[in-house]
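I hope you will forgive my troubling you with a question about protein structure. The matter concerns a single protein, recorded as an amino acid sequence and a row of backbone structure tokens. Please examine both parts with care and let me know of anything in them that strikes you as inconsistent. Here, with my thanks, is the record as I have it:
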Amino acid sequence: MEEMRKFLILVIEAAINSPRVRRLVEEIEKRNHKVDLLCSSYAKILTNKVYFDGKAVDFSKYDFIYSIGNDEKHQYISVLVGYNYKTKIWPDDLLINDKFIEGVFLNSIKVPTPKTILLTKKREERIRDTVKEVGGFPCVAKKVTGSEGKYVSLINSVEECHSFINQLPHPSIIGKKNVILQEYIRESKGTDFRVYCVGTEILGAIKRKSQNGDFRANVSLGGQAEKVKLSDEMIGYSNEIIKNNKFLLVGIDFIKSNRGYLVVELNNSADFKGFEKATGIDVAGKIVEEFLKS
């Protein structure tokens, strides 16, 4: 009989009852392993320890720790664990929690992306000059952290850019406020493709399509998902990504442009409810098995 292993899943309050967490717990317990949840929203995070429910968390008693979501609190806990414990924590690459750094990584391995630039000033002349670098208005504005289509907007003017910046959390206690501007690929409006990979395995792809005219196709925003065949480009670029950066789980978001497929984002804590439903592939089980192999 296989030895019982202990898992800890880091979650924020909003994700405790999410389908993703339920599926992971289900697959861990199905294999007769133990799993605890730690809600970082209620944790006290010091530079040398974390308290939860009035007790210091002993991370050394866990075989595996999985951080769900790109919340900065999780990043701090990951750093604390990395320096003080031998426990394996995923994701272990904190750089791919920032959309600008994702772009740097993708360009370094020659994976094509929309033109992307960091917005460094809010002055009108600086915005106009920056927008020119990505092809002019309309363009896409994104907060460098965030998921499920949050803090992403199509902007058509300096005024809309200011409006986007002003609606970001201020003062921020939930993440960075840096903003990138990205080339708008008109021909892809409302449709994207997500390829799911666990470890070094490419599981498959879904096509996501907006149902309400939104340029974003996220399932969390009402987009519909369907299974699609992986193209040669998707396979090639996905292999380059997982070869050059070790992921447990990554969702690779593609859009189709007139110059071929482009990668717009990497999601190392991707929600997989829509993918499991569309494909019948047991993503949660594969994640647990990948843990157990390490």
User: Anything to note?
Assistant: Helices lie at 19-30, 72-84, 99-108, 124-132, 158-166, 232-244, 273-279, 283-293.
